[in-house]
Design a protein that fits this description.
The structure holds two protein chains of two kinds. By secondary structure, chain A is α+β, with helices and mostly antiparallel strands. Chain A has four helices and eight strands. In chain A, a hairpin with a 4-residue loop joins β4 and β5. Chain B has one domain. Helices cover 14% and strands 52% of the residues of chain B. In chain B, β10 and β11 form a beta hairpin. Chain B is elongated and about 80 Å long. The chains are: A alpha+beta, B mainly beta.
């Protein structure tokens, strides 16, 4: 009976011994590249009696990126790369007896340093009535994209960039007048990605990669 | 490495279940958050398939089940498989309004660790996340076998634990099965011992940002097996089973830049043929087996029959 107990005890120790050994030896270090997505939107409240108007809105890019990192419990030092992915606009509020068609550009500039403004978006023939509530992707222009990406690089290097998006009107149909004011709310959004290099340990029990 | 760290890691493996659970439970949601829909499905597919396959190993060996009498066995089965090169990449499509829409071969969850970046209009770029660079997958879980009544025995697999604030999070594997002797109806001296069985298992891994299970896999398996004891020590066995599994994944996607609760469901069914050999050494049983199915896997383990 005693011999049986010894055998049972010894046998039950095997998985524990294996575990202690395997737990220490079979963990492998990895630096995995995680991608975070975020979207920064600038709402523009338009109320004009002329077709010539500009509407600025600021994006605290540095603070927004700080929040993104904090939400994911990572730090600026973990960032490998960050860049602009896409842009879009959406008419949020529009209520009028007739439709308006607008065109123009959205420029981007840096407020923390002297850079820009550069054209980011050219929009043409936007029907406010038919675009209401629809998020529309837009083609982005090289100069504006380069400015935003440079701002992201400066953030990685320790800066705190602030962007200003400005709507610069072009043609408006029909012409706004004091008695028929162009009134609507829309927003421009920038989608960005941040690539992180995160160290982790994984079990790769039987090897291979 | 200090002792407490070594011990904690040892405990992981001792009770443990899923040797790939570490990345699954915590960081995998970070990776997944960049994806929605089909991209997330392609990213996870090799791992989900591996879980569904591995749960079906180590469930049975001897087809001989006494008609009556108490028998108890505690067993420690291990089932593993290697991933193929095809498992490491999938075809993904850009998201988040990226223009032009572009497809690329990018890492799955077990693929290379580096992100893949594609170029778009106006100097924009889109990044697909990397994987964890894992070559193999294994499950190890203790199980208890108790018999027998009317030539029928029951088996239970269970392990559940929480690793505090580590990357592992919650892990729970629960399983139950019954086996019934067919050979008891084949006369007093059947040529081989035959049994039929049914198993149910549920594997839950991790916790998503909403506090729900990140992954839940439910597995069913039924079929028949045969074995023949040779020389009192060797016990070769074979089994033919149909296995099916359903895995539900719940996570928060931020692919569009704003958080969005996302659910994915995977299901599959497949036939598995098993060949194995068991050594009966007094009260200790040691075995190895090879499982032929959509994914080939192999198992080994030992048990104490009391």
């Amino acid at each position: 009976m005693k011999r049986k107990k010894v055998v049972i005890t010894a046998a039950l120790m095997i998985p524990i011994a294996l575990a202690l050994g395997l737990g220490g030896c079979l963990l492998e270090d990895r630096t995995v590249e995680v991608v975070l997505n975020d979207e920064y939107c600038a709402p523009f409240v338009e109320d004009h009696d002329s077709e010539n108007y500009t509407t600025p809105k600021d994006i605290e890019l540095g603070e927004d990126l700080d929040s993104l990192l904090a939400d994911n419990e990572v730090s600026r030092e973990d960032i490998l790369n960050a860049f602009l992915v896409s842009g879009s606009y959406e008419v949020l509020e529009f209520s009028h007896t007739h439709d308006w068609t607008i065109s123009g550009v959205i420029t981007v500039e840096r407020l923390d340093i002297s850079s820009g403004p550069d054209t980011l978006v050219v929009y043409s023939t936007v029907s406010l009535e038919s675009e209401l509530g629809i998020k529309t992707p837009v083609d982005l222009h090289d100069d504006g994209v380069a400015l935003v990406n440079a701002a992201m690089d400066d953030y990685i290097a320790g800066g705190n960039p602030v962007l200003r998006l400005t709507v610069v009107s072009g043609d408006v149909y029909t012409d706004p007048t004091p008695s028929d004011r162009l009134q609507f709310v829309w927003e421009a959004c920038l989608n960005v990605q941040v690539i992180l290099g995160l160290d982790t340990e994984i079990f790769n029990f039987m090897g291979g990669s | 490495m200090d002792f407490s760290s070594t011990f904690r890691r040892g405990i992981w493996s001792a009770v443990l279940v899923l040797l790939l659970a570490s990345p699954l439970s915590a960081q995998i949601e970070d990776h997944l958050s960049a994806y929605t829909g089909e991209n997330a499905r392609g990213y996870l597919d090799p791992l989900v398939s591996a879980m569904g396959t591995s749960l079906n190993g180590g469930l049975y060996r001897s087809g001989k089940i006494p008609k009556a009498g108490l028998s108890i066995a505690i067993e420690f089965p291990f089932v593993g498989l290697y991933f193929s090169d095809e498992d490491k990449k999938f075809t993904a499509t850009t998201e988040a309004g990226f223009l032009p829409e572009t497809t690329a071969q990018v890492p799955t969850v077990i693929g290379p660790t580096g992100a893949v970046i594609v170029d778009g209009e106006g100097g924009t770029q889109f990044a697909f996340p990397g994987g964890f660079d894992v070559g193999s997958f294994a499950i190890m879980a203790p199980q208890l076998r108790v018999g027998s009544v009317l030539g029928t025995e029951a088996m239970v697999r269970f392990v559940a634990f929480r690793i505090g604030d580590s990357e592992l999070g919650d892990v729970m594997l629960a399983g139950f099965g019954i086996r019934h002797s067919i050979s008891q109806y084949m006369g007093p001296t059947p040529v081989v011992d035959v049994a039929a069985s049914f198993y149910w298992q549920n594997l839950k891994l991790g916790e998503n940002s909403e506090g729900d299970d990140l992954s839940s896999t439910t597995n069913y398996s039924f079929g028949a097996q045969a074995s023949k004891k040779l020389g009192g020590v060797l016990n070769p066995y074979a089994g033919l089973y149909y296995n099916s599994y359903k895995t539900d994944i719940k996570y928060t996607s931020e692919a569009s830049g704003t958080p969005e609760s996302t659910e994915l469901s995977f299901d599959d069914g497949f036939v598995q043929f098993t060949l194995g050999l068991e050594l009966n050494l007094w009260i200790i049983n040691v075995w190895g087996e090879y499982n032929i199915a959509e994914r080939q896997s192999f198992g080994a383990g030992f048990g104490l029959a009391l």
